[in-house]
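Sanity check

After download, print the first record. It should look like this:
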Amino acid sequence: MTDRKKATQSSARLIPKIRALVVDVDGTLTDGGMYYGAQGIELKKFDTRDAKGMQLLESTGVLICVMTGEDDAPTRARMEKLSIQSYYPGVTDKLQVLEGLVNEWDIEMSEVAFVGDDINDLASILAVGFSACPNDALPQIVANADYVCNRVGGHGAVREVCELLLKRSGAG
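Expected structure tokens:
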């Protein structure tokens, strides 16, 4: 287990001021499953409560970014519907992209929250001011995240993080 202090709903004061939330997709905004119809069409299930949480957080001035290693039509369609301006599909090095965004946004890495679930998220989880993961994330991610959600990926974990950040800001 890491020496990073785990946050809980009651210890929101431990969370630094967050100016940007970066979220992974598969296993975080979705349950991580890949569904294919008979015609080979890929389908994904997103939780509408996660989307509302991101919208509520964005309404307080927090930048919202979605970053994923995949590049697929269902996720593109969902990001378009949600009007997510900072959407980065097909990312192989999330930390590198994140570092570029932090410079572009003119903020510090310590002002970024990151939600991820798999090994390709670990470097970002270790680099940001506040990190979180769904309850069913890989053990290496759970061991290093600042906050482990009560909910699993694709079932409100991102909303849980958004509410925690809103509570910390006094808006929740």
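If your output differs, re-run the checksum step. Summary of this record's structure: The chain has six helices and eight strands.
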